[in-house]
């Protein structure tokens, strides 16, 4: 089916962990503070601007958010007042901050190839439950996945809940925020990646498909699975045999099985 090379090695290099007392709070208030946080590469999930707020600082903030693909929503000032303590001046701007910084897709790939490994990535299409994302992160670390691709829209961002459920794995597994899923998949294909999607009607049983080489495993949402466009862009789809009365598995469970199968195949190839 596929001609692929070199197995992936087992171990990640630890990301720089932030001491607990220095971790970024989930809320950052003030235009200038948010601007500097973006410039410093901090992980920003979403920015809220008060309706009617104006000025050069607001324009700079909007431009930076657009450049970095950060969502900006306009809300009533009372909503911002409710988010911060009374002694904090939010200047009409509040940001939801991720527990760790997001990374670029290129950085994840370069890190894998610098170690002589075929990149193994997990792309999550519509995962909205932080429990599932945290569990997938934990398994990704254990199974040697190089990084997770997380769409900016229709997906849960990195939050304190995700970090807690991941049991520390968020400090080790790089997470890249991506914009358009289709564009990302096409770009990765041009770099030699194969795209394998988990689907109940997949054409191959998961343990018979070739999951070695530069690979992206796609896991769809908890209820709907992958979107139709994402499914159409997959090079192949795999299914998990269901022997009982229930016809689907939790997204984090399905992802765990596929990640470990990919690791099993890579180990077997390395042993030959």
Automatic annotation (TrEMBL):
Tell me yes or no: is Transferase among this UniProt entry's keywords. Answer: yes
Which Gene Ontology cellular-component terms appear in the entry?
Answer: cytosol
What range(s) does the RNA 2-O ribose methyltransferase substrate binding domain occupy?
27-103
Question: What Pfam families does the record tag this protein with?
Answer: SpoU_methylase, SpoU_sub_bind
- Tell me a GO biological process for this protein: methylation
Which keywords does this chain's UniProt record carry? Methyltransferase, Transferase
Q: What InterPro entries does this protein map onto?
A: Alpha/beta_knot_MTases, Ribosomal_eL30-like_sf, rRNA_MeTrfase_TrmH, SpoU_MeTrfase, SpoU_subst-bd, tRNA_m1G_MTases_N
Q: What is this protein called?
A: RNA methyltransferase, TrmH family, group 3
GO molecular function terms attached to this record = RNA binding; RNA methyltransferase activity
Superkingdom field: Bacteria
**Family according to the record:** Belongs to the class IV-like SAM-binding methyltransferase superfamily. RNA methyltransferase TrmH family.
Q: Where is this region: Disordered?
A: 1-22
Spans of biased composition, class Basic and acidic residues? 1-13
On whether Cell inner membrane is a keyword of this UniProt record, the answer is no
């Amino acid at each position: 089916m596929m001609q692929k090379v070199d197995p992936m090695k087992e171990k990640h290099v630890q990301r720089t962990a932030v001491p607990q007392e220095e971790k970024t709070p989930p809320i950052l208030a003030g235009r200038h503070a948010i601007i500097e946080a973006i410039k410093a590469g901090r992980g920003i999930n979403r920015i809220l601007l008060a309706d009617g707020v104006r000025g050069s600082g607001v324009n700079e903030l909007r431009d930076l958010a657009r450049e970095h693909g950060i969502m900006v929503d306009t809300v009533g000032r009372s909503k911002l007042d409710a988010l911060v303590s009374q002694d904090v001046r939010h200047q009409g701007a509040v940001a939801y901050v991720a527990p760790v910084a997001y990374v670029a897709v290129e950085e994840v790939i370069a890190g894998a190839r610098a170690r002589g490994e075929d990149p193994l990535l997990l792309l999550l299409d519509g995962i909205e439950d932080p429990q599932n994302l945290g569990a997938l992160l934990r398994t990704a670390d254990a199974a040697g996945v190089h990084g997770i691709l997380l769409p900016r829209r229709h997906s849960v961002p990195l939050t304190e809940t995700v970090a807690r459920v991941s049991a520390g794995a968020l400090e080790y597994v790089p997470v890249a925020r991506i914009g358009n899923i289709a564009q990302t998949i096409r770009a990765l294909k041009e770099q030699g990646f194969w795209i394998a999607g988990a689907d109940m009607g997949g054409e191959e049983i998961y343990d018979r498909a070739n999951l070695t080489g530069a690979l992206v495993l796609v896991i769809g949402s908890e209820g709907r699975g992958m979107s139709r466009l994402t499914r159409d862009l997959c090079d192949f789809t795999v299914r998990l045999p269901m022997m009982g009365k229930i016809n689907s598995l939790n997204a984090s469970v399905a992802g765990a099985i596929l990640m470990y199968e990919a690791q099993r195949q890579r180990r077997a190839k390395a042993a030959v």
